[in-house]
Amino acid sequence: MCLAVPARIIEASGNRGRMELEGNTREVDLSFIDNPQVGDWILVHAGFAIEKLDPAEAAETLRIFEEMRGGADASGEG
Amino acid sequence: MADEKIVLAHGGGGTLTRGLIEKVIIPALGGDAGGLPDAAPVPGTAGLVLTTDSFVVKPLEFKGGDIGSLSVHGTVNDLAVSGAEPLALSMGLIIEEGLDIEVLRRVLVSAAAAARVCGVRIITGDTKVVARGEADQLFVNTAGVGVRRITSDPRGLKPGDCVLINGPIADHGVAVMSQREGIDFRTTVESDSAPVWPFVRALIEVGVEVHAMRDPTRGGVAACCVEMAEGSGVTVELDEGALPVRRQVRAACEMLGLDPLTVANEGKIIAFIPEKDSARALEAFRKIPSGENAAIIGRVVERRRFPASMKTCLGGERIVEMPYGEELPRIC
Amino acid sequence: MRPEKAEEYLRRIRLAGDEAGRVVRLMEVCGTHTHAIGRGGLRAVLPATVELVSGPGCPVCVTSQRDVERMLLLARIPGVTVCTFGDMLRVPGVSSSLEKERARGADVRVVYSPLDALETARREPGQQVAFLAVGFETTAPGVAAVMLRARDERVGNFSAIVTHKLILPAMEAVLDGGSNIDGFLTPGHVSVIIGADAYEELAGRRGIPCVATGFEPIDVLEGIAMLLELIGQGRGGSFIQYRRAVKRKGNEKAWGAMMEAFRITDGEWRGIGVIPGSGLKLRDELSELDAEKRFNLPELEPVELRGCRCGEVLKGMIHPPECPLFGKVCTPASPVGPCMVSSEGSCAARYRYG
Known about the structure:
By secondary structure, chain A is α+β, with helices and mostly antiparallel strands.
C-alpha cells in the first residue's frame, strides 16, 4: 500500500510547512523530519513528510523517469 | 431493489452511471427514448440535432472557467462531436436562496461571452429559486440545437482507425478537484473548458473521413474509449508514450492518487480517423492555437478480450477500464 | 523504445532466471506494487521464469468486515461526522458501505490526511468528528501524531476507530501458510518507517531475501533483478533497492510517535483471520479518543465469507482465478473478498490486467 510522492519544501515553520511539486502545493507536516529546510526534497504520505530524500539519488531517479516518459509530457504552460 | 438509493458515483460517468441509464432511465421512459445518446436528430426536421446537459460544478468559479462558460461549452461540445454546428441554446437556472447576485451576474456574463465565441445565441431561458439547502448555490441546465454538417456515429469505430486528441488531458478535473473543500491543495492547473467546434470544422474543411468523435468529459479518456469501443465491437489500443499530459497535471494526479486517463476534460475532442487521413487530420488540429499538443494517442484494432488497453512506456500492456464513478483522492 | 536502465534490469532478470533453471516465485507484499506492476504492464515483459504473487499488503482490503461494520455503525449515529480516506468509501461490510450510508444521509467526508480530519473537528466544534484509521506503518505514524495532538490540545469532539496493521507478522503468516515464496519485494514506504533492518531477523531465520522496493515500474524491475540474483547466490537477508528513501534504521521519530499513541495487539485481517501481534490499538492513556468506547459501539461477531478463498490468495497459495467466486459472483463492481475490494487487491488487479 501507500502512495507517497516526492516533493520540495517551499515553506517551513516548526513542524508545519508547504510542499511543492510541479506548481502544485499543499500543507505538509514536518514533525517526522530532522531539521527540515526550504529546498529539501521530501517523501510525503497522507500529509506527512515521512523521509528526506537523498538529493543525488532523487535527481538520478527523476532523470530516468524523464527518459521513460519521453515525449509524453505536454508543454508546461497552463 | 426497493431500498436502493442513488450514490454520488451514479453521476460520475462510469459504470454506475451507465447502469442507471440502461436499467432505470431508458426502461422507465419507454420505447420512445431510444438509446438516449448525448445528442440526437430531431424527428421531422432536416438535420436538426438536439442535446441537453446540466451543470452542478463546485466551486461555481474555478481556475480557467466557471459554471456559466462551462454550461455553454458542455452543450455546444455535445453538438459538435455529434457532427452538428451549434446554433442556439436555452438556459435554465436553479438558484439557491442566499446566492450573491453579483456571483450570478459574473457567471452569466461569462456564459454570454462564451456563447459569443462559440457563435451561438442563448435564445430562451427559465429561472427558479429554491430554499436554502435545496440546491447548492446554482445549478444550470442548457439545451442546444445545431444543424448536422458531418456524420459522426459513436458506434462507428473501425479497425485501422487512428485515435486523435486535440491536446493534453485531465486539466479540468484537476483544476476543479484542487478547489474542493477539505483538500488543502493548490495548483497552477487551469480548466481546459473551451468549445471543440473549431476542431470539428477543421476536419470538415480539410475533407478527411471521420468515423466517430466524442468529448471525453466525466470519466475521462478511459470512459470515452471503453464505451465507444464496446459500442463498435472493437478494441482501442492507446499508447502511453503518446498521451499528452502536462507535467503539473501528472504531478497533481500523483499527489492525489488519480489516474489522468479517468480525469474529466471540458475542451477535448477525441476523433477516430482512418489511417490514410490521420496525418492530415493531425495537421489540421495542430494549426488551431489550442491544438498545438494534439496527438495520435492510439489505434483501433479488431476486438480482443478487453475493449481498451494501453501499451506502456516499458513495453508492457495494461487494460484500460471503465472508471467506477466518483474521483476520490486515495492514499494507497 | 525502453529506457536503457529498463533494458539493463530486464537483461539481469533474464540471466538470473535462466541460471535458476526453474520458476522463481516472488511476492510483492504491497498492494501499491501490485498496482504499479499492472499499470506498467510488467507481467508481459518478464520472462516465464519469474512468477509474481500478490501479497496481503493492501490495508483497505484486509480491514476485517467486523471493523467495517463498526465504521458503518458509527457513521449511522446522528451528529457524528465520519472522516475517511477515499479508499475506504466503497469497501463493503455485511450490511452496506460508507458510500451507501452517505446516500442514506450519514455525514461521511473524504480526507487526504488525518490532519484534515482533526481540522474538521476544530472547525466544527458542535459536531462529533471521528476518523477511520486504516493503513500500515506508513500511515499509522501520521495518525498517531494527530491523536497525540488531539489529546494535548483537548479537542473534545475528535475520536477515531483504529485498525492499523503491521506488515512483518503478515509476511510471517504468509511463510507459515506453506506458500513456497522464494523472495519478498517489501513495501518501499513501510520500509521508510520501519527501516531495512527490521526485516533482517525474519530474513535470516527463514533464509529468504527481502528487497525494499520503490513504486515506479523501473524500481520494481530493479527490485526483481536484485531478488533473483540474491536467490541465485542463496543469500537471505534484507536489502534496499529504494535507496533514495529507505534507510537501515528507518524513521525513528515516526516510529516513536506510533509507539507513543498505539500498542501492539492481535490484528484481524479480512479473509485471513487473526494474526498475532499484527494490529495497533490506541494506548489506554488515549482511550478517551477511542470512538468505539465514546459511542458504546457493540461487540460484533466475526464475519465469515462463504466460498471466498482470499485467505489463500493473500498468502500466495492459489491464483485468483482458482477461486470459484472469481469473476462470477465476485467482481470489482460487487466484490466479496478483500482481494477484489480495493483496486489494488490481488483479484481486482488480476481481473483488470488479466
